[in-house]
Amino acid sequence: MIRIALLVAGKDLRIERRSRVLLWQVLPFGVTALVLCGLALGPLHAGNSSAAPGLFYLVMLLVALLMINRAQVIEGSPGTRASVATLGLDPAGVFLGKALALAVELWLTGVVVLAGSVLFLHTALSGTLSALPSVVVTLAALAAAGTLYGALSGGGQGPATLLPMLSLPAFAPLLIAGERSFSDALHGGSLWRWWVISLVALAAYLAIGILLYGVLEES
Amino acid sequence: MPSADLADLTPVPAPVTKRRGRGRTIGVLVVLALAVLALLSQGLLHSLNYFDTIDQAMSARAKLGTETIRLEGVVKPHTIDRTSNGASFWMTGGHGEEVFVSAHGSPPQLFQADIPVVVEGHFTSATSKDFYGTQILVKHTASYIAAHPKRVKAPNGSTR
Amino acid sequence: MIKTLSQRLLGPVTLVLLALTFWLGLWVTPPDKVQGNLARLLYVHPAIAWVALYVSFGTAAIASALYLWKRTRSVVMDRVAYCAMEVSTVFIILTLITGSIWGRPTWGVWWAWDARLTSTAILGLFELAYLALRRANDDPDLRARRCAVFAIIAAINVPIIHFSVDWWNTLHQGATVFTENGNLLVHGIMLWTLFISLFAFTLLFFWLLRARYRLEVLRATRYDVALDEALAQRRREGVH
Question: What's the pLDDT at B60?
Fold first, then answer.
C-alpha cells in the first residue's frame, strides 16, 4: 500500500512540476486572494488583524478547491481511469498517494501564503512560526478530505461546481480547528488542543479514505 | 524521440495484487473509533463553548483581562435597573460569585429577574468585577411549567 | 390484510394526530411560567428536529450503509436513502426556521453561533450537497455508491449535534426529553402534547417517505418506458 502510495504521489507531483500550473497559476491566485482579503478588511483593520488566521485558512480552502479540481482534470482525460483500473492498483494506496501529493502542494502554497500574511496582514512572525506544526497537520487533513471529495465529485456533470458544495461543509471543522490553533499561537496560548483536533480529523479522513476509496473507484 | 523502454511494447503479465484482508478494515475501524473517542473527551473541545460561566471566568480572571467574552449567570432579583439605552443588574454564578453588569442595547422580551442570561462584553478593567455588556441574550432552561400551576393535572391525577 | 390496512390508515391517522397536536398546543395547554405563549413552539420545533435529525436522516444513513454492504445492496436501499434524505432536508430547513422564530423573542437574536445551531446548519449544508451530488451523476450504480459514501460521512455530524448541548456551553437549551439525569422538566399536559407531537410528526415522515418513494419508482419506470419508446421510434424512422 505504501509503495503504491509513494508511486502515485511521485507521479502526481511530477505532472505538477512539469506543467508548472502550481507555480504560475495556483500560487499567484493564493497571494491575490490574500491581498483581496486585506482590501476587504479596509486600511484600518488590515494590519495586525485578529482575522488573519481565519483569512489564511479561507485562502487555503480556495487554493485546495482549485488543486483538487486540477487533480481530477488530470485523471479526466478519456481512457485514463479505465487504463488505471486495469493496473489492479490497491485503491487505498492510490488514495494515500493522491492525498500525499495534494498535501505537498498545499504545504508549498501554505508557506507562500503565510509569508504573504506576515507581509500584508502584519501577522507576528514568531507566532506564525509556532503555528507551523498545526498548519502542517491541518493542511494534510484538508488534503485527505479533499482527495475523498474530489473522487466523489469527479466524472459527473459540472464537477468544478459540485466540489465546493460537497466539500465545504466538511472543511468547516478543519477551518475552525486551524483558525483557533493559529490564533492561540499568535496570542501565546496553548497550541496542542486544536492541534490534536486537526490530527484526529486527519486520522479519521485517512481511515475513511482507505476504507471507502475503493468503493468510489470500482466500476 | 521516445526512449528505449517506452518503445518496448512486448506484453507483460498483470501485476500481482495482494488480496486485502479483514485485518486492514478492522485496523481502520479501530483508528476511527479512537478518533471519535478523542473527540468525545470533553476537555479537548472546551473552546467551542458559546460562553463562559461566571465561575469559569473568575477562575481565569487574570488571563481574561479586558478581552471580549460572553459571560453567563443568573440575574439577581431586585437589582435590575432599566435605563433609556439598556439595563444594569447583578449577575450570580453557580458558586455565589457576583458580577455587576451594565449593558447597552435593549434587552430581549424575556429578560427578567432570576433568569439565566448571556452577556456579550468585557470587564471594565483587568481586576474589576464590573462587566460592560454590548448585548444581552436570554438563555432559557429546558423546564416548562404552567404559568398557573393549579390548572394543570400531573399524570397521576394530582394538581400542582 | 394488516399491511393494506396500515397503508390506508397512515395518512388519515397522521392528519388526525397533527390536528390533535395543534388543538392541544394552541388551546388546551397552558402558557409557560417563564416563556408564556412562546412555549407553544415546544410542540412543533422539537418534533420537527427529531424527524429531521434522527428519524429521516437516520433512515437515510442506515439505508446508505446497507447499500454499501454487498449482501444487502439493492436499488430499494438506494431509493429509500435518497427519498429519506430529501424529506430530511425539508425538515431540517423547517427546524432552522422554527428555531429562529423561537430564538428571536427568547434569546433576543435570530441566530447564534453556538455549537448546536452551527452543527445543525452544517448538517443542512451536507444534505443540500447530497441532493446536488444526486443530480450530478447519470449512471445509477455510480450515483448510488457515491451518495451512500457521502451520506455515511455526513452521519458523523448527528452524534455531534445530539451531544453538543451536553459537551459545551450552548445558548440552546439542554435536552428536553432525554435529559442527563432522566428527570423530565415538562409538566402535565404539556408533556403529553409534546409526546403526541413527536409521534404525529414521525408518522408524517413515514407518510411523506412512502409518497416520495412511490414517485421515485414511477419516475424510474417512466424513464425505462421513455427509453423503449425512443428506441422504437428510432427503429420506425429507419424503416421509412
Answer: 81
Q: For chain C, say whether B146 makes contact (Cβ under 8 Å).
A: yes
At A197 the pLDDT is 79
Total count of domains within chain B:
1
* Any domain includes B32: no
Which residues of chain C neighbour B144 with C-beta distances below 8 Å?
32, 35, 39, 42, 176, 185-187, 190
Residues A197-206: what's their mean pLDDT? 86
Give A193→chain B minimum CA distance, Å. Answer: 6
**What is the pLDDT of chain B when averaged over all its residues?**
78
Rounded to 5 degrees, what angle do the CA atoms A168, C115, A183 make? 70
Q: Kindly report the length of chain B.
A: 160
- Number of folded domains that form chain A: 1
With a cut of 70, say whether residue B157 has pLDDT above it. Answer: no
Percentage of chain A lying above the pLDDT 70 cut: 95
Q: CA A182 to CA A176: how far, in whole Å? A: 10
Domain that holds residue B87: 48-138
Report yes or no on B67 lying in a domain: yes
- Considering only CB atoms, which chain B residues are within 8 Å of C176? 142, 144
Could you give the 3-state DSSP secondary structure of residue A185? helix
Question: Which residues have C-beta within 8 Å of that of residue C204, sequence separation ≥ 6?
Answer: C14, C18, C51
Residue B85 lies in a domain: yes
Whether the pLDDT of residue A191 is over 70: the answer is no
- Which domain does A30 fall in, by range? 2-217
Give pLDDT, residue C239: 66
Which residues of chain A have a CB within 8 Å of the CB of C126?
Answer: 169-170
- Residue B76 is part of a domain; what is its CATH number? 2.40.50.140
The chains found to touch B (3+ Cβ pairs under 8 angstroms) are A, C
Higher pLDDT, C145 or A77: C145
Chain A to chain C, count of Cβ pairs less than 8 Å apart? 54
CB spacing of C108 vs B136 below 8 angstroms: yes
Q: Which of C42, C106, C194 to mutate to test the interface with B (most CBs of B within 10 A)?
A: C106
Please write down the long-range contacts of C233-236, taking CB distance under 8 Å and 24 or more positions apart.
none
Residue B143, pLDDT > 80, answer no
Q: What is the ipTM of this complex?
A: 0.83
How many angstroms separate the CA atoms of A32 and C191, rounded?
57
- Note whether residue B95 is domain-resident: yes
Contact assignment for B31 to A206 by CB distance below 8 Å: yes
Residue B55 is inside which H or E element, if any? helix B54-59
